[in-house]
Amino acid sequence: MTREQFRKAEGFAALALSTLAALGGLFWLVFILGDVLVHGLKALSPTLFLNDPAPPGVEGGGLRNAFVGQLLITTGATLIGVPVGVLGGTFLAEYARGKSISHIISVLADIMVSVPSIVIGTFIYAVLVKPVGHFNGWAGAVALAVIMIPVVLRTTEDMLSLVPWTLREAAFALGAPYYKVITQVVYRGAATGILTGILLSIARVAGETAPLLFTSFNNSFFSLDMKQPVSSLTVTIFQYAMGPYDNWHAQAWAAAFVITIFILVLTISGRLLIRWRYK
Amino acid sequence: MARTAKRNPVDTFFSIITGAASFSVVVLIIGILIVLISESSLSIGKFGIWRFLVSTDWDPVRESFGALTNIYGTVVTTMLSLVIAIPIAIGIAIFITEISPNFLKGPIGAAIELLAAIPSIIYGMWGLFTLSPIMSRYIEPFLQKVFGGLPLMGILFQGTPMGIDILTASVILSIMIIPFTASISRDAFNLTPEVVKESAYALGATKWEVVKNVVLPYSKLGVFGGIVLSLGRALGETMAVAFVLGNDHRITTSLLDAAATITVTLANEFAEADKDIYLSSLFYLALVLFVMSFVTLAIAKFFLLRAEKKYTR
Questions:
Q1: Which of A13, A64, A88, B137 is disulfide-compatible with B22, CB 3.0–4.6 A?
Q2: Is the CB of B112 less than 8 angstroms away from the CB of A213?
Q3: What SS3 state is found at B65?
Q4: Tens digits of residue pLDDT in A1-49
Q5: Contact residues, B window 167-226, toward A, CB-based 8 Å cutoff
Q6: Do B91 and A88 touch (CB under 8 A)?
Q7: How deeply is A99 buried, as exposed, middle or buried, from its count of CB atoms within 10 A (0-12, 13-18, 19+)?
Q8: What mean pLDDT do residues A206-234 have?
Q9: Inter-chain CB proximity B282 and A259 less than 8 Å
């Protein structure tokens, strides 16, 4: 083989391997999503949303308690996490812009995004479950909010930084104080971006299981009381999938299907929004 | 700008509120550290620091606890998953940036990122019901047949293939971290200036030679940062491994044995810990994990920031 032929062959082999890797990545996506789809659709039925769980081992029953509980916990987390995150991001991008404190907090938030969520669960257990004496829904909501804050904070900071500085100067020139410039000019310019950040952060926490295991725990009964243990879809999936009964497994697949679709819809609409706004 | 902020009282108020909100991140990180240390003080007092880290005991009945089996499980599954994930992720990044036609770049990139959006519990459950039977029936017996007889390699594949083991957990973990590594590598590759690549092409380099000699050296800081970031993520991953690792506290050389990671131990035992020293030791484990992942993530961030500085200069 001549040197040219060898170089060509080597190049071809390397590129073929890369293409295979990309196909492999897509293969897993199709495999996992397809599996969730097939098993989930099979187990999906109206009773799943309307009934509460049957006693262990008894056929039938649904997961109404878990759907409602998940909604409560996620809404609670959003109500706590979004304001703190958006305001915090505002400080970094506006009042502290260019200062080293802004840079330090930004880096810390980036690290915080990837801190193991189960560690946050143990932290919230020590702070909100141990003093109260029992698992409760608020602890779960706060644990998810803690995960949410750095995500929302960082996207808000980035989105506000994209708003041109001249826009602010125009508003300053009209005599507007900084807070009015922020709330009436900068927020408007960055609204789509911030909304996308919020959507993606909800998608991120909606699938979290580890921080809920010992904060909101689980509850086999229908309950709207956030001061008591609250059931969630993810913890229920863990319990049911590890359990011995076939109908538990089927319901776990159905719950997995619902939560996956929910998260994918949020993620895709977030991406479309950002493309539509910043293209 | 600063002068306007001082003049208006509402403005002062707004800046204090936003400032407090952003400091919540600092408060949370310091708070987590302090709370974990104080909750584990009972266990720190009884087992010390070094003795806890090197002890293989994990016995709730005799109330003797050590972290080594958990740390071992965490490190082995993480490393193995990186070994599987890194070549595939870099291959994907090369495909997206250099090979794929333009109209495919967006959709494939998006699909890979969707893989990252799927929650870890779905991976874990899929691993338990779908991947684990495939592993125990086909892949693990095959690996055993091929490598089991070899000296040295053989000890990695001893025991009965059950599908609930280190290998299965690492495979699932690798599928989970591929999207991260791939998208960070892609972003790093994209920062290579077109001019430099075109100069290499003009000298007659093949596409692979451009990737190997121009793009990879140029983006190595960013790619390395991305790999360390994936490492940090994998260390703390809980649900993807909790289903298929078996929570067995021992140190084993075979990849076909069950094991325990810090996260799996916490997930399985935390809510059931009945004694103070048991719970305190679990908090101690969480503290070890927090420090491990924080240091790893800080290193990753350091490299990514340096890469960013280098390119924007």
A1: A88
A2: no
A3: strand
A4: 788 888 889 889 999 999 898 888 888 888 999 999 999 998 888 888 8
A5: 175, 178-179, 182, 206-209, 211-212
A6: no
A7: exposed
A8: 88
A9: no
Residue B301 touches partner A, C-beta closer than 8 Å? yes
- Cβ contacts from A onto B, under 8 A: 275
Contact B95, A24 (CB under 8 A): no
CATH superfamily of the domain spanning A65-278: MetI-like (1.10.3720.10)
Helix H segments across B40-101?
41-47, 50-54, 68-94
Residues B264-286: tens digit of each pLDDT: 999 999 888 888 999 999 999 99
Q: How far is A169 from chain B (nearest CA, A)?
A: 9
Shortest CA gap B308–chain A (Å)? 13
Domain ranges of chain B: 2-39, 67-312
Q: What CATH number matches the domain at B67-312, 2.30.30.220, 3.40.50.1950, 1.10.1040.10, 1.10.3720.10?
A: 1.10.3720.10
Q: What is the pTM (predicted TM-score) of this model?
A: 0.92
B276 and chain A in contact, CB less than 8 A: no
CB B173 within 8 A of CB B231: no
Residue with tokens 């977030």: A270
B206/A91 touch (CB, cutoff 8 Å), yes or no: no
All residues of chain B having their beta carbon less than 8 Å from the beta carbon of residue A110 are 301
Question: What secondary structure does DSSP assign to A38-63, as a single string?
Answer: HHHHHH--HHHHHSPBPPTT-S-B--
Q: Which residues of B74-113 are buried (b: 16+ CB within 10 A; e: fewer)?
A: bebbbebbbebbbebbbbbbbbbbbbbeeeeeeebbebbb
Determine whether the interchain pair B21/A85 forms a contact, defined as Cβ–Cβ distance below 8 Å: yes
